[in-house]
Design a protein that fits this description.
about 750 residues; metal-binding; Immunoglobulin-like; Herpes Virus-1; alpha+beta
Length: about 750
């Protein structure tokens, strides 16, 4: 019984809540608190709407959606008649209200309710209602029985009467389906519309049809709600992830700065300790000097006092005997060395070495990496089709959730192509900003469909289905060629060797001629890896360019970057490469060497080294030249031929020698060399790129160990030297000499 009363109480509370304006908490009625339905399906009384409307719009106080209200007229929002039925339910359920008969004028208490005509009847009117032939078919129930059963809205639904003159008490039971009408009708109105050719149906029929349609929409809304819940779960996970990542970043920042502060504190303590130690040492020396001078002064004072006493009270006989001794003591005092000043330099000065540079660099210490990019607003421009072996461009424009363009050039954006097998083809170089869009260039190596994949700071930004269909293949003459690339490598055509000489009028042989065709045989793929100088191994004696592709022994407009801190492990007067080579390997890159001698170079004068170390980099990093720890190409003064030469070394064994030029002042060189590192021939080949000539080969290279590339430049006082790396997309074509097996 108690449970039933609780359920009824909850039902009453629910009805009361639904029949109350959520903004002013007033019960809806038929006059000033009429319920009105907003397009967002929230309900407000007309009084609240009148207060909230402004500038021809109204903002829903519940969901903050803006709705148009022409001329600030809130009467255009439809009335919600479902609240009228709720009020009737509350009237019956409430013990504080007395229901009055709707038929007579006696204000008698209603005891019955007619479900057909929806009138409350007192006992006398009920008798009349029952006896009247017109109402005999009506369904009448006592209020007592009505309250004892489960109350439904159907029990209290009021009929809708036609308001046209002459149609009084005519219930609207029909609905006109014609587009120009779309309204409910009584029987008399229906006859008029039917005669006009309109389509009129029973209102129950259209009600069932609309309810069925709304039921279908309700299913869609329920599905949408589940989708929203799923999306909210993802967003909540992201919220939690952002908090964790932010907390982790804060912890990392605190740890890093605390470590810096601790290091500075230790350095401060060491400096102060050194100052105190020097202070104590200087004071010891000065105080010892002061004490010595005090003792000397005391002896002088004592001698003077003794002489004055002897002069006054002297026994001449004894005085004459002791006078020589006294004279000697006075002589010693007169000849005593007197310091003209302090025995030590007392100057002490604290010089804030590097503190000014540190203070200037403080605003650049640390960096917060984040992005406002919003995947659904990301714009991608790319060709639908691209030929294999030729470059194709992908343009990406990042936008935030407000659809504003993000044009930060420092965004760590990676654009790649993903094949059907999952193979990833990366851009040959970092994305470049161009006209507000990030540009990436690819050279596909095989046919098929490639999906465009985008990531920002390592996080995928995929909300699209953009693809590139790669078709066809490139040819050299009638013979196909295949140069494959690892990661961010790029395909490029074969370069034909330049003839050593030719007679006047004789044409050079082109690719596809008999001689060159004989040279073309099936061969392994050649990789052109994209890499740069690794600044974490940079020596403080050399300089790098901003793109880390140029190494110089002097600061220039191209190479001006020095290590910001002293690297614990650095290459002697040089820098290491950012990759290493290991089997399987057939990799090619180019190195431009440019030097100018400011004075004559002599024995032991070096210009540069190019090395491939087969030891661990930790062992490779030493305070000496590394040529005996690696396969090396060394440029410098040659004692054998007294000029500048390039010598090839297999560790401590000389394996090649190439003259480069004079060793005298103003001599210079500007030449590009190609280097092929191939495990199939266990060799390192050096090629003159301009002449297409194979210069030397270092054989017997063991590829069971990784080869670490390193580069060094020397002689800043005697010469200018620059090494420029050409890798990946920097290489336009590969010398044919490299490809011949």
């Amino acid at each position: 019984m108690a449970a039933t009363q609780t359920d009824e109480t909850r039902g009453m509370a629910k009805c009361l809540l639904s029949a109350t304006c959520g903004h002013c908490n007033h019960l809806y009625d038929e006059t000033e608190f009429q319920p009105r339905l907003l397009p967002c399906l929230h309900i407000l009384c007309i009084t609240c709407l009148s207060q909230l409307v402004a500038d021809d719009k109204i903002v829903c106080p519940f969901c903050h959606t803006k709705h148009r209200a022409a001329n600030n007229d809130v009467a255009n929002f439809p009335r919600d008649y479902t609240k009228q039925d709720l009020l009737e339910l509350l009237k019956l359920k409430s013990s504080d209200l007395t229901v009055i008969c709707d038929v007579c004028d006696e204000d008698a208490k209603a005891a019955y309710r007619c479900r057909t005509c929806n009138d409350y009847l007192c006992s006398e009117c009920y008798g009349f209602h029952k006896r009247c032939k017109r109402y005999k078919s009506h369904d009448v129930i006592s209020i007592k029985n009505l309250l004892s059963s489960e109350l439904r809205s159907d029990d209290v639904t009021a009929p809708s009467y036609c308001k046209l003159p002459g149609h009084t008490n005519e219930v609207k039971t029909m609905f006109c389906m014609s587009p120009e009408c779309q309204r409910s009708l009584c029987a008399k109105c229906a006859l008029k519309d039917i005669s006009a050719g309109h389509q009129v149906v029973n209102i129950e029929q259209i009600f069932e049809r609309q309810m069925k349609s709304l039921k279908s929409s309700e299913k869609d809304l329920n599905f949408l709600r589940k989708s929203i819940d799923s999306a909210m779960s993802l967003v909540q996970d992201e919220i939690s992830g952002v908090k964790k990542i932010a907390d982790s970043c804060v912890a990392s920042a605190e740890s890093a700065f605390d470590a810096c502060i601790e290091s500075l504190q230790k350095r401060k303590e060491a400096i102060i300790s050194r100052i105190k130690l020097e202070r104590a040492r200087k004071l010891d020396i000065l105080e010892e000097q002061e004490e010595s001078m005090l003792n000397l002064r005391q002896r002088v004072d004592d001698g003077i006092t003794y002489f004055k006493e002897a002069e006054t009270h002297v026994n001449r006989t004894y005085f004459v005997e002791t006078a020589p001794f006294i004279q000697r003591q006075f002589e010693d005092l007169r000849n005593a060395r007197i310091d003209e000043g302090a025995n030590i330099c007392t100057h002490m000065h604290f010089r804030p070495t590097m503190l000014q540079e540190l203070e200037k660099s403080i605003p650049e210490i640390g960096e917060v990496i984040c992005t406002r990019a919003f995947a659904p607003n990301t714009k991608i421009k790319a060709s639908d089709c691209a030929p294999v072996g030729e470059s194709t461009t992908v343009l990406v424009q990042l936008r935030d959730r407000h659809n504003d363009v993000i044009d930060d050039e420092n965004v760590d954006l990676i654009i790649s192509l993903v094949g059907a097998s999952g193979h990833v083809l990366e851009s040959s170089e970092n994305c470049q900003m161009e006209n507000g869009m990030y540009k990436a260039v690819f050279v596909p190596r095989s046919v098929g469909k490639y999906r465009i994949d985008i990531s920002v700071y390592g996080q995928p930004l995929n909300n699209h289905n953009d693809e590139i269909n790669v078709t066809g293949y490139s040819e050299i003459g009638k013979i196909k060629y295949s140069i494959s690339f690892t990661e961010s490598n790029s395909e490029m055509p074969v370069r034909t060797p330049r003839p050593k000489s030719s007679r006047k009028g004789e044409r050079h042989r082109h690719v596809g001629s008999e001689v060159l065709t004989n040279l073309l045989r099936p061969r392994k793929n050649i990789d052109c890896p994209s890499f740069h100088f690794d600044e974490s191994t940079q020596s403080s004696t050399c300089f790098l360019s901003d793109d880390k592709k140029i190494l110089s022994n002097k600061q220039t407009c191209l190479a001006r970057r020095r290590p910001t801190i002293k690297n614990r492990g650095c290459i002697y007067q040089g820098v290491a490469g950012s990759v290493f080579f290991t089997s399987p390997c057939k990799s090619y890159f180019e190195l431009e060497l440019k030097y100018h001698l400011l004075t004559d170079v002599k024995a032991d004068d070096m210009i540069c080294d190019v090395m491939f170390a087969d030891t661990e980099m930790a062992e490779f990093v030493t305070p000496f030249r590394h040529i005996h720890d690696a396969f090396s190409l060394c440029v410098g003064f040659c004692t054998k031929c007294s000029q500048v030469c390039m010598e090839a070394w297999d560790h401590e064994r000389s394996v090649g020698h190439i003259p480069l030029g004079l060793a005298s002042t103003k001599s210079s060189l500007n030449k590009t060399y190609g280097i092929l590192i191939a495990d199939d021939s266990a060799s390192i080949k050096l090629v003159d790129v301009g002449e297409g000539e194979l210069l030397l080969t270092i054989e017997g290279v063991d590829f069971n160990k990784s080869l670490w590339p390193a580069f060094a430049v020397y002689g800043a006082r005697k010469l200018d030297v620059m090494l420029r790396l050409k890798t990946g997309r920097d290489i336009r074509e590969v010398p044919r000499t490299v490809l011949v097996v």
